[in-house]
Amino acid sequence: MSTGLRTDANPVELVVEHASAPLALMARLAGSGLFGDYVVYERPGSWTFAGGVLAEVVLDAGAVRAHWPGQAPVTRPWTGRPADALRRAFADAPLPAWNAYGWIAFECAAARPSGRLAHLVVPRTEVRAENGRVTVTGTDETDIEQVAELLAKPGGHPVGEPSPVDVSVGGAPYRARVAEAVAEIHAGLYQKVIVSRRLDVPHPVDVVSTYVRGREANTPARSFLLDLGGFEATGFSPEVLASVDSAGRVMTQPLAGTRAFGLGPDTDARTRHDLETDPKEIYEHAVSVRTSQEELYRVCEQDSVRVTGFMTVKERGSVQHLGSSVSGTLSPGRTAWDALDALFPGVTASGIPKPEAIDAITRLEERRGLYSGAVVTVSHDGALDSALVLRALYAENGRAWLRAGAGIVSASTPDREYEETCEKLSSIAPHVVPRT
Known about the structure:
The structure is a single chain. The protein is an alpha+beta fold. It is about 30% helix and about 35% strand. The strands form 2 sheets. Strands 4, 5, 6, 7, 8, 14, 15, 16, 17, 18, 20 and 21 form a 12-stranded antiparallel beta sheet that branches. Strands 1-10-9-3-2-12-13-22-23-11-19 form an 11-stranded antiparallel beta sheet, with helices on both faces. The radius of gyration is 21 Å and the shape is globular. The two termini are about 40 Å apart.
């Protein structure tokens, strides 16, 4: 994915050696107040801070609004697939090169989408940390100068102490929803559904400090931190939803099957063996991988679809999962937006078959929003990378909350599924930092 942003003028670029660890650098930028809106996105070996708004695309249930530099905002109605509405909005970009960052809500996949569905920005300034070097690229010389001054200052963002959130509340209503889902599965309505529960945080949260504390304790496939339009979120995604390079190679990484992790070598080894031999967990994972294959067959060349690393145990903070990678090459005429549409929402956060599972989720739960949606970065060259949003904290209008779910199949029991949500919430709940 390219790093340059250009309008009619050449971009300003600054490359420096920087001693700070990337996590500390991202926290310093996010907490600096230099940019009202920003997105931090971590991929293996690469951290990017996207600050300020050069352009913006916002998708609501009834309309898509695009605001490009030098032009008045344009709001248009849309029908059909949300991914197509986003693709058309970015096809109109009057920029020769751009990268966009933002989020897509779970409700994009609903039969009748509602509320805010997506919010993406092309930043004024990008700061990328890779291999001990920091590259600052942008369209505004003042931004570049301010970032350079910030990088030159000693110290970093002050990180507060966590106040752990109790994950054990709310068990009774969740168990009841699980029992209802199991009954619907036995009635033949669907094979699998992910039932989640929301956990409110009893105090305002320092989201940047929570990102630092949580990232220090987690081993995510992707991590993110964002503040767009006053909505904040941070998380440690256990799996890649869709990654597409500029040559059209697609990869998704379904994880399904869960046990606790981090309880000591002997306990971790025992729970790993239990995970790898439990028929319910193996079935849950196998049907998820099969679904991911079927989804890629819709948009990829048939003989290119492959499964690798089948049922490998992935350690993700307080839990361990069974994981596999499914990949393929886009068919002629298909784009990264098609791949995202085929895989969204993640099978491991929705269910099987997806339409029936999504319908069940809308009946069993309140609006999810960003939970089990995606944080996305997309580029003019056709590349796209998206993290499935799990193990995350969300904050808006002075309130913060967590959310976690479990995959319900015919063999599920309410007590075990509730326990699984506690294990997943423990990836972030102990690391929540109050705002002072």
